[in-house]
Amino acid sequence: MDYVYLDTYYPPMPALEIQLGYPGETFTLGPLAAIVDSGADGTLIPQSLIDEIGAPLVDDVRVRSPWGRWRYLQLFTVDIGLETLRLSAIEVVGDDLGDEIILGRNVLNRLRLLLDGPAGRIETL
Hints:
Largest sheet: 7 strands, mixed
Strand content: over 45%
Distance between the termini: 8 Å
CATH architecture: Beta Barrel
Shape: globular
Number of strands: 10
CATH class: Mainly Beta
Number of domains: 1
CATH topology: Cathepsin D, subunit A, domain 1
Structural class: mainly beta
Helix content: under 10%
């Protein structure tokens, strides 16, 4: 399946359409745009979405922003859906400040993606 880059950003940003759900249950949220960020170690999801699905808390974690600022946030477990693929029990950080879903390497390393920057699209393989 092909996805187009989000042109609400400059330069346009690669994004996938995902679903979210409580681990082992039916997806309750989505489709949602999720930014592909191969430089992010982990996946960030707005805390409001985490609260909406009632995701189980795993732990408190200390995370660092790209600017070097440290924050304490909470780690949760969710299922992430992409097309027919279900990624079960993915640990994600609940972001209480942001409103974007950021897919980091803990998710991206499970996928085969072709980023075609000149065409502004992502192809799932």
